[in-house]
Amino acid sequence: MAPAAARAVLPAGPASVINLDVDDVGGFDPIVRRNAGGGVARHNLSFRTTQRDAERIRSLLTDMRNQTVAEFGLRWATPSGPQTLRMFNAYLLQFTYVDLWEGGRGRPYEEFAVAIESTHGSLRRSEAQQTLVADYKVTPRGVEWIRSTT
Fold this sequence. Notes:
The protein has helices at residues 4-8, 51-64; strands at residues 17-21, 24-28, 33-34, 40-42, 45-50, 68-78, 81-102, 107-117, 120-127, 130-139, 142-149. The protein has 2 helices and 11 strands, in the order H-E-E-E-E-E-H-E-E-E-E-E-E.
């Protein structure tokens, strides 16, 4: 990974703000886990989308790789309401994707696994009559979470 000072001189990413509508988010961890050699040990974000949207998302992620964008966001819907993940000063290290077939019903999906760093962000989940907000900040000591409801 390029040091933060080196990343600052990289040209801007494909856009200063990237927001993607996806079908589902499988998991998120603000910290990219690294192996002993400093490489990515595992991806810290996974999400699923239809094949119809996958090519556009692959293209955006390819253009975004090794670039810093001001904001990277995902939006998706659940039975309890809309969900959003926003990551600020996001730096995409790598991503992979795979075609999936949901439950043998012939409904095509693609799943993306992403290694992306950020300085801070928020996760918003609508549950029943309230919205749960979890803001995070990545520090040298780890992740600091601040939770609230609205």
